[in-house]
Amino acid sequence: MESVGHPTPYAERVLDLVERIPAGRVMAYGDIAEYLGEGGPRQVGRVMSTWGGGVPWWRVVHADGTPAPGHEARCLARWREEGTPMRGERADMRFARWDGLPEITT
């Protein structure tokens, strides 16, 4: 994931949100767009492919829980390290999806 130029304000908002996804959790591209109230899955994907190398990119997935194409092996290794709920080689969206709300720890 190569960086080109400076991120746009929209890209900065996407990257900020991705940095806040807790370890072991994921958000789909469309979840991010919906949370921000702007753009769509393709715009989020564009941001991630252009500037996402410096954030936990492996926590951003397709709606079906599959990792970004070409990054599957590294993504799966990170998920295993973080204890991300999985179904086979995809994130289990029922349990791994983060809604953007702060995690409550006891």
TrEMBL record:
PANTHER family: 6-O-METHYLGUANINE DNA METHYLTRANSFERASE (PTHR42942), ALKYLTRANSFERASE-LIKE PROTEIN 1 (PTHR42942:SF1). The keyword DNA damage applies. Gene3D superfamilies: Winged helix-like DNA-binding domain superfamily/Winged helix DNA-binding domain. InterPro entries: ATL_DNA_repair, MethylDNA_cys_MeTrfase_DNA-bd, MethylDNA_cys_MeTrfase_DNAb, WH-like_DNA-bd_sf. This is MGMT family protein. Keywords: DNA damage. Pfam families: DNA_binding_1. Residues 10-70 form the Methylated-DNA-[protein]-cysteine S-methyltransferase DNA binding domain.
